[in-house]
Amino acid sequence: MPDITIDAADGSGSFSAYCATPATGSGPGVVVLQEIFGVNQVMRDICDSLAAQGYIAVAPDLFWRIEPGIQLTDKSQQEWDRAFELMNAFLPDFEKGVGDIGATISHVRAMDGCTGKVGAVGYCLGGSLAFAAACFTDADACSGYYPVQIEDSLELSSGIKSPLILHVAELDAFCPPEAQQKIKGALDPNEHVTVHSYPGVDHAFARIGGDNFDADAAAVANERTAELFRAALS
Q1: Catalytic choice (61, 74, 100, 172)
Q2: Is 6 strand, coil or helix?
Q3: Given phi > 0 = left and psi -120 to 50 = alpha, else beta, which region is 45?
Q4: Band (141; pLDDT cuts 50, 70, 90)
Q5: At CA 122, angle to CA 175 and CA 202, rounded to 5?
Q6: 32 beta partners
Q7: CATH architecture observed for domain 3-233
Q8: What is the pLDDT of residues 162-204, one digit of tens each?
Q9: What one-character-per-residue DSSP string does 14-25 give?
Q10: What pTM did the predictor assign?
Q11: 47 closest CA partner among 110, 113, 1, 112
Q12: Is 203 a catalytic residue?
């Protein structure tokens, strides 16, 4: 599928996004939020899978201000080191990244063939961004897989007005037990938020081909996301 170009909300430039469309050419939209490896083949495959389910799926390049077009894998230490460098460079501009997500949602909503409903799904860094998207954008529904470092920003959840589900890996070293308890305690009272815990699995349990991939847990999480989007985006 061809990449598309999206104008940044702050007027600082434009960025590319991978776009996959359903065979019918129309449907609701889903914005796919990247891991620390960029819009790589894993993210593109997720977009293609969503398109096969009837969604216009778009994965924006959220590292474009640092280095456009990053596509790393999780198969070498060098790539891991570079991925963490990129994440650390991105975090000071986290708010700009959330603005880029909002611009992507608006762009997808206005695309020919889009029904006007747009959700977001993210993984790892993208899982945290899915939480932020629920807090700050007009996404119709969000799903975040193994979010990291959101436990100190939970007061932002008062801005959540549309459905959000979070998939938390019980053994996630990037989100230790005390952080998981804090997340659940703060978000459980919000009627729009559901936090699912996955026992016995680690961070990135839904990344196909990854060391921590767990087919059973991934299938459950993916079906929950599919149910969310069917209900909120149809």
Answers
A1: 172
A2: strand
A3: alpha
A4: very high
A5: 35
A6: 121
A7: 3-Layer(aba) Sandwich (3.40)
A8: 999 999 999 999 999 999 999 999 999 999 999 999 999 999 9
A9: EEEEEEE--TTS
A10: 0.97
A11: 1
A12: yes
Cα gap 18→3, rounded to integer Å: 4
Q: What integer best gives the mean pLDDT of the chain? A: 97
Q: Is the pLDDT of residue 2 over 80?
A: no
Cα 117 off chain centre by: 16
Q: Which residues contact 91 (CB under 8 A, 6 or more apart)?
A: none
What is residue 1's predicted lDDT score, i.e. its pLDDT? 56
Contact 83, 117 (CB under 8 A): no
Which is nearest to 225 in space by CA: 118, 139, 120, 137?
120
The pLDDT tens digits of the residues spanning 57-101 come to 999 999 999 999 999 999 999 999 999 999 999 999 999 999 999
The CA distance from 10 to 176, in Å, is 35
Kindly list the strands in the beta sheet with 164-169, ordered across the sheet, starting from the edge strand earlier in the chain: 3-7, 14-20, 56-60, 27-33, 114-123, 141-145, 164-169, 193-198
192 is catalytic: no
Find out whether 196 and 224 touch, Cβ atoms under 8 Å. yes
Contact 59, 17 (CB under 8 A): yes
- Give the residue-averaged pLDDT of 16-37: 98
Q: Which of 203, 211, 214, 216 is catalytic?
A: 203
β-pair partners for 69: none
